[in-house]
Amino acid sequence: MHGPVFSVEPPNTVVFANTKGASIACAAFGVPAPRLKWVRKDGSPVTEIPRVVSVLPNNTLYFPPFKSAMFHPDAHSQEYRCVATNKGGKILSRLLRVTAVVVDKDNTYNVQLNNVWVMRGGTAVLKCLINPHFVNEYIKVTEWTQGSVSITNNTRISVTSNGELQVRDVSDVDRTSAYRCVTKNILTLDEMTSPPAYIHVYDPPAVSKAPNIEKSLSSLTAEEDSKAELPCVATGNPLPRYEWSKGGQMYYAYLSFSYPLSPSLSLSLPLSLSLSLSPSLPLSLCVI
């Protein structure tokens, strides 16, 4: 005899569209075979609400698709646990937050992409603009294209974790093709491609200009063992030189670098970026 152990434990969060519904599995093993049930956060058992929520014979917590008028806050915006019990003991799953999003009237969105003007040799940043803004959290950028070719990260072009496209050391070749971003609604799985946008390249002006930070982060939170992206984009004439420092130690980086996180640095990484043009121009410091 031994107590129950989860073989399939529910996740922390499930968000679904009312037009799609959701199924959440839970399974456990033990000797004897454990009994499974679903409870709410307060410990009360989940009982069937027709066309709203039910527990299937295989112990799957099931939310069928529903019309907006059938939204039930006590079921569709609720916290649940799966419980497994046998003679060897009882275990409770992590707390699961279920959120149903009504998209009957808001299942469409628009994607815009604006042209950008960049000095030759500088960095172009293209960003998908999602309208209406309140659907942003459900829209993900899945791909960027240049002309008919899908863009992959390389030493000069990269897609950041927030979906922006960054093109470094721009030249005339970058303005010959249209750029587009492809997005997906993670609730409805609908996809949409933006209209084309172009990178316009201009020559450096005759007058020197001190560096100016156009894009940076003041702090960053990331999971342990994940890759932390710390972007910094600056303008100036001549073009700025990028240097990263941490704890007084300098790191060379063109636009961003990845710093391996240890458990003690899993919340934020204080770093600084210094930009220098020439001895006759001031030094800008971007603390991130």
Question: Could you characterize the architecture of this molecule?
Answer:
With 288 residues, this protein is mainly beta. The protein folds into three domains: 2-101, Immunoglobulin-like (Sandwich); 110-202, Immunoglobulin-like, CATH 2.60.40; 209-287, Sandwich (Immunoglobulin-like). The chain has one helix at 73-76, and strands spanning 2-8, 13-17, 22-24, 27-31, 35-40, 54-55, 61-63, 77-86, 89-92, 96-101, 110-112, 116-119, 124-126, 129-131, 139-146, 149-150, 157-159, 165-167, 179-185, 191-193, 199-202, 209-215, 233-237, 241-246, 249-252, 272-276, 284-287. The strands form nine sheets. Strands 2, 5, 8, 9 and 10 form a five-stranded mixed beta sheet that branches. Strands 16-15-19-20 form a four-stranded antiparallel beta sheet, with no helix packed on it. The chain has a four-stranded antiparallel beta sheet with strand order 25-24-26-27, with no helix packed on it. It is elongated and about 80 Å long.
